[in-house]
Amino acid sequence: MAQESNEMVEWIEEKGLIPYIEAENFMKARAAAIASGEAEERIWLLEHPALYTAGTSAKPEDLVAPDRFPVFQTGRGGQYTYHGPGQRVAYVMLNLKERNPDVRAFVCNLENWIIATLARFDVTGERREGRVGIWVVRDAGLASEREDKIAAIGIRLHKWVSFHGISINVSPELEHFSGIVPCGIDEHGVTSLADLGVDVTMAQLDAALREEFDRVFG
C-alpha cells in the first residue's frame, strides 16, 4: 500500500512474525536504494518473534539473561531492547535530506508521532530528559506513583536516510523484558496498552499511526 503526503511513502503492514535478520537486511538495502533515488520511502509495520537487540551503546552487563532469547547486534543507536509478539514495530525509512536534515528534529518528530498516536486511545505519553522513549505515569499523585516505558526509539542513518525506528507495546509478554535492562534504565518499569487496561488491536493502532504520521511528518 502507498500513501501520499508531501512525498510518496509506501506503507506495509505485515501479517505474522518477521525474522529480525530478514528485516535488518531489507532495511539496509532499502535505505541505500532510497538514498540513490531508486526507491520510495517506506513505513514498515511488523512484529518479530521474541528476541533482544543490542544498540551501539549496549553494555554487556545489561544483558541479564543471555541465553533466554536470540540476541542480535545492530547498528541502531541505543542500548538493549526487546522485540516480540504483541509489540508493534514501525521501521521508518525516510529521506531526511529531502525532508529536513536535522537528526534532533527527526527524533522529536518520532516522539511526537508516538505521543499523538497514544492520545487517540486516551493514553498520555510523555518524553523525559535523559531517557529515550515515551513514558506513562502510573498512579499519579499517590505514594505508588511511578513512570513506565511504553514505547522505544532507535534509529540509524545512511546518507541521511533513516532506518530502524520505533516500537509500541500493545500486548507483549512484559516479563520478557526482565532478561535485559531496557535501554540501560533499571529504575523504571515497562508497560503496554493492555497493561494499562486499554483494549487496542494492531489494526486499530496501525490506522492511528498512519493518520498521525501525516499530521507530524506531512
Can you put this structure into words, describing what you see?
The protein is of the alpha+beta class and 218 residues long. It contains four helices and twelve strands. The strands form two sheets. Strands 1, 2, 3, 7, 8, 9, 10, 11 and 12 form a nine-stranded mixed beta sheet that branches. A three-stranded mixed beta sheet has the order 5-4-6, with no helix packed on it.
The helix tally amounts to 4
Largest sheet geometry:
9 strands, mixed
User: What structural class do you assign from the helix and strand content?
Assistant: alpha+beta
Helix content: 10-25%
Overall body shape: globular
Number of strands: 12
Cα-based radius of gyration, to the nearest Å:
17 Å
Uncertain runs with pLDDT below 50, 5 residues or more?
Answer: 1-6
Rounded average pLDDT: 92
N-to-C order of helices and strands: EEHEEEEEHHEEEEEH
**Between the first and last Cα atoms, what is the distance in angstroms?**
17 Å
* Beta content: 25-35%
Give a quick summary of the entry.
The protein is built from 4 helices and 12 strands, in the order ββαβββββααβββββα. With 218 residues, it is an alpha+beta fold. β8 and β9 form a beta hairpin.
